[in-house]
Amino acid sequence: MATLLLRALRPLRLLQCFPGPAAGVGLRASSHGTTGLLYPEHIPTSPLQKALLAVGSAGMALYDPYRHDMVAVLGETTGCHALKVLRDQMKKDPEGAKILQERPRISLSTLDLDKLQSLPEGSLGCEYLRFLDVNRVSPDTRAPTRFVDDEELAYVIQRYREVHDMLHTLLGMPTNMLGEIVVKWFEAVQTGLPMCILGALFGPVRLHAQHLQVLVSELIPWAIQNGRRARCVLNLYYEQRWEQPLRALREELGITDPPPPIMSRTWPRP
Asked: CB within 8 A of 58, min separation 6: which ones?
């Protein structure tokens, strides 16, 4: 049994040996001889290994929600069905199909920061850059996909990760625990990914009673309503919409302003 567990957990040791994400390179099917790799960062795993990785990463992610590496592993090892549904939705949408074909990546090496800084106040690009600056976050912190055994689905979950900060901008949510939970509820409704559902359900246990009351009474209903009404956010080619006013994009998607309790905690709004 000990030998079996060691073999099953070997991918976690491999995970520590891999370099950071090559964020400027789109995920594509690659020829790697007899190695069985479907894309450069791919780590092949058996069903048993995936199950153990899912259990271990879920425990660590619940213990420390800021362990983004464990959250990433959980998403990859439990999200196969949801990723197929998302992929099919993208293929049926002209903008989503173009994203699947061109495989854009969001990183500091692909963003034209000078262009974003020159955009007018209130535009998507300007507000996204403001979000990154105010919250001191970087698009380069997103982990590369490793445990998804389909290169197209691997790109779908990579795209989901890289537009996460875009969703914060769209929804007007800060990066504190309350804001992250609200975004997770929106993502859970939009994507059906088990990782998002678990985060939405168990994230609130860390909140103070006052924040929990606001979350349950106002923010969760708002997130669910907007998640159901909005077009699939993975079908938006954000890189071709930088000039679009953020308010116009919200109206296009049917996303309403967040309730007052969260509005007062965000950066200046257009």
From this structure: 74, 198
Q: Take residue 31 and report the two structure tokens written for it.
A: 């020829």
Packing angle, helices 151-162 and 68-78, rounded to 10: 140
Tokens found for residue 179: 């804001």
Element (H, E) at 129: helix 124-135
pTM for this prediction: 0.85
Instruction: Put residue 269 in one of left, alpha, beta given phi > 0 → left and psi -120 to 50 → alpha.
Output: beta
Among left, alpha and beta (phi > 0; psi -120 to 50; other), residue 122 is: left
- What is the mean pLDDT of each successive set of 10 residues along the chain, which is 270 residues long? 45 50 54 69 93 92 82 93 98 98 95 94 96 92 92 97 96 92 97 94 88 92 97 97 97 91 46
